[in-house]
Amino acid sequence: MNVDLFDFELPNDRIALRPAAPRDSARLLVLDGPETRDLHVTDLPSQLRAGDCLVFNDTRVIPAQLEGTRGEAKIGATLHKREGPRRWRAFIRNAKRLRDGEVVDFGQGVLATAGDRAEDGSFALDFHGDEPVELLLERCGRMPLPPYIASKRPTDARDADDYQTMFASEPGAVAAPTAALHFTPELLAALDAAGIGHTTLTLHVGAGTFLPVKAEDTADHKMHAEWGRIDQATADRLNAVRAAGGRVIAVGTTSLRLIESAAGEDKVIRPFEGDTAIFITPGTRFKGVDGLVTNFHLPRSTLFMLVSALMGLDRMQAAYAHAIAEHYRFYSYGDASLLLP
User: Is 105 in contact with 70 (CB distance < 8 Å)?
Assistant: First the structure.
């Protein structure tokens, strides 16, 4: 499909620079079949059914934004995928000043040697020493806010909490699964009381999620890979939910992509561990999920293509036009939508 079909105009003032407070006070646009409702995230229990199950991503964002030097040159690095105990793949700012085998000093005693450069322009970085890389990043790294926020204000102490979900337990992401940022213990208790269950999986979100689609046709776009895991118990539970007539509702496109990677043509969800580069566009047949809670996405992005695949392109273009007219807040710190095809 032509990528231009997924374009739309977003006023700059619709981009949220801070999350709603409290988190579950954010607005919720509900698309329930042909119906459209303007609600709030606190209304979510009334929009789902007893027996449904929400699936959260328990990945934890690491301080993956690094600033360093190579000789006199300043080098910026955004880690995006672990390749080994001490090796990470990273997108490099000022990459022309860096070559294979050169050492970057990130301060605080943190050094890394540049390795091979991949087709997407990223470098391998091999961190020196014996300390776990996570400890090194705590010393020298900062929270990797999305470019559309970082370009408008600096990262600060609030982001260390704001950009982490209440489910975050497995370190490895360099971007938050932002749909889950809206959830609070109080909301989870209300969902439990309504008979709506929840479970978790792990997908370590990479910085590739923010890469623009440069191809003119979706068929020519190469999707980035991310590591994920669904264990046997989680797969069994989700299959049991659907067998009992409940719905599997992914919270975030990351959860949806992993479930769809693990589901077979028979619509059975199986254990999964490894990389997925699934690219979901209109025409995709969904095998593992029945709905989605998600934020509002960038024009021409793979994530807007994903929600268009779930609900239909015309439906999503109309829904986004409605959200813009009604002053919904967009992107990572913005409002949410509930999509029930």
Answer: yes
Contacts of 249 by beta carbon, 8 Å cutoff, 6+ apart:
48, 52, 53, 54, 55, 289, 290, 291, 292, 293
Give the Cα separation of 43 and 233 in Å (integer): 29
Residue 180 sits at the vertex; the CA angle it makes with 324 and 57, to the nearest 5 degrees, is 130
* CA-to-CA dists, residue 274 to 202, 258, 279, 285, angstroms: 11, 10, 16, 22
Query: What's the first-to-final CA gap in the chain, in angstroms?
Result: 21
Q: Residues 232-250: what's their mean pLDDT?
A: 98
Would residue 318 be called left, alpha or beta, if left means φ above 0 and alpha means ψ between -120 and 50 degrees? alpha
- pTM for the full model? 0.94
Residue 249 has what DSSP assignment?
A: E
CA distances from 204 to 162, 163, 177, 249, 261 (A): 18, 14, 9, 19, 14
Q: Report the length, in residues, of the chain.
A: 341
The gap from C-alpha 300 to its chain's centroid, in whole angstroms, comes to: 16
Tell me the pLDDT tens digit for each residue of 6-53: 999 999 999 999 999 999 999 999 999 999 999 999 999 999 999 999
Q: Are strands 59-61 and 170-173 parallel, antiparallel or unpaired?
A: parallel
The mean of the pLDDT values for the chain is 95
Residue 211 has pLDDT above 80, yes or no: no
Q: If pLDDT is split at 50, 70 and 90, which confidence band does 270 have? A: very high
Over 90: is that where the pLDDT of 308 sits?
yes
Query: Quick check: bond before 85 cis, omega within 30?
Result: no
